[in-house]
Amino acid sequence: MSSPASEARLEPFRLRGANFNLLVLRLLDPRVEVIVPALADQFRRAPGFLRNAPIVLGLDDLDPAAAPDFAHLTSQLRSVHIAPIGTTGGGPEIRAAAQAAGLPPLRAAGGDQPVQAAPAPAPEPMPMPEPPPPSGWQPTMVVDQAVRAGQRIWAQGCDLIVRGTVNPGAEVIADGNVHVYGTLRGRAIAGGAENLSARIFALNFEPELVSIAGYYAVRDGLGDAPLGRAVQVCLIGESMRFDKLG
């Protein structure tokens, strides 16, 4: 026998607009046999990065005449625990090839119009209401304790301050800046909302990975970064710069 509460709720589902923080994987080479091993190599250097994460494939840098085998690419990405959910950029032909493999074109939050794919014999979808625009920057999120391995903290629409250590295997994410007033040993991701001016600050810089607005560097790729020191990380063009503080 159904309860009065279940009988009162007649609607089987609800739809609403929402914004999500997604990484874009910019494809610079159409060959699946090149892309996937390169990603797997990054995973070995930064365990857990992008594991089971939904991503968007960026098509702007690909030659429209040499589209990847999107069905094979999708299969291979899922085999290394990456979940491609759609595409951004690219011309009509390459977008159509991706859509035929189940990767629809997506638009960035706040964009004027969705990217139009090549016509397909499908019924017109019912128009959905646009999500409300962001109400503005929110107060800074402050975390007063250490961030343990396996924890993920995301400061949506604001900066993040961690007053303790970010341990190996932990992840801190902010749409603005990330401040770690302790040792950064895990992963720090700033500028999650494509904020290219975001920065990462750490009093003791020993990260597994740092990322700003989708550009990232793993521990083996930090070059001459002053490890073990107080450091500021920022973007200069598409390159990361690591400056000592103090």
TrEMBL record:
Keyword line: Cell cycle, Cell division, Septation
Cross-referenced InterPro entries: CAP/MinC_C, MinC, MinC_C_sf, MinC_N, Septum_form_inhib_MinC_C
Source organism: Pararoseomonas baculiformis
Main function: Cell division inhibitor that blocks the formation of polar Z ring septums. Rapidly oscillates between the poles of the cell to destabilize FtsZ filaments that have formed before they mature into polar Z rings. Prevents FtsZ polymerization.
Region listing for Disordered, in residue ranges: 108-131
PANTHER family: SEPTUM SITE-DETERMINING PROTEIN MINC
A Pfam entry, by short name: MinC_C
Superkingdom, taxonomy of origin: Bacteria
Domain Septum formation inhibitor MinC C-terminal, residue spans: 142-240
Record note on quaternary structure: Interacts with MinD and FtsZ.
Protein name as it appears in the record: Probable septum site-determining protein MinC
Family of the protein in this entry: Belongs to the MinC family.
Biased composition (Pro residues): 120-131
Septum formation inhibitor MinC N-terminal domain boundaries: 13-79
